[in-house]
Amino acid sequence: MGAKLLCLFLTSALLAYYLYTPVLEDFEEPWKVMLIAAGVRVLDHVSEVADRLGLMHYMEATRLITNIDYVAPTSDENVTVTDTEFGKVPVRLYLPRKASDGLRRAVLFFHGGGWAIGQAGARSYDYLTRRTSNNLNAVVVSVNYRLVPEYHFPIPFEDVYSVTKFFLQSSVLSQYRVDPDRVCVAGDSAGGNLAAAVAQQLLEDSEVKTKLKAQALLYPALQTLDMNLPSYQDNKNKPVLTRSLMIRFWSEYFTSDPSLRQAMASNRAERAQNCPGFLDRRAAPLLASDAQLRGLPLTYVLTCQHDLLRDDGVMYAVRLRAAGVPVTHDHAKDAFHAVLSFASCPLKLAVGRRLLDRYIAWLNENL
Question: CA-CA distance, 59 to 62, in Å (whole number)?
């Protein structure tokens, strides 16, 4: 009897440890937030154990688990969905079925996940891009770029840039009946980083004649130099992205050498600057000069108060405005990182659904 009680106590304590997360008053649906935080904590611990036991790399373990959420390309009455390749890079293509009076709009979407996890076929991203296509009657291209740890910077950037250049060819735009004056790049988190970098690079690419109409950056990661910004300090242990995990994502983006991770954790950027790509603006778009920001397309930036990447987005919005770029900065005081990923089933987080509606409404009005 005593052993059973002890087991019950230990099981209850373990469940309480994983499930209980202090939730700020700003958060509605606190029980859903606690479930999200608990799930992320379990994922982190399982991946860490797998890594330390030598079973597989931390990022590979995380990806293996999160890929359970994959959904096959499934068309419905509103959108035709197919998996194909653009420029030898796999993409998921969403084509609206509704008739159009003229040429359609288009969105190139780059998923988040720290350049290491996530895919166009993840349930949350399929929901987001499918809704975008249906609500805007737009062509949406969701890119499956290559991931860390097998591929480091600049490979993920080169993949999304290759898809963008391929799609912006006049022959491809004509094939999908896309208006060349109404194309947008968008992405969340690491995908927001890639979208910002692509928009900057296109300004200097004389081979690309089609100009972007807009860029939409959802809680983007934009800089490598300061891991102690106020938002990093305020939100270092908030759902869903902790400081230690973001540093792990950043360091693995460049190299699997643990010394970079250690240097970034101690916020000693001077020790990391010799790492290839660390100061490359294709990896850290916030490092672009003012001159390199001028001419960027009209921009939507979503930041969340309880997100350690908040200040990256805030600073970029300020710099873009100073460079003369039209910017809509949408700041959500009641949200945390990756909140749009929880707008779909099974949780249907209310704040995630509201912010997704705002993002799509901005695209509808400005694209």
Answer: 5
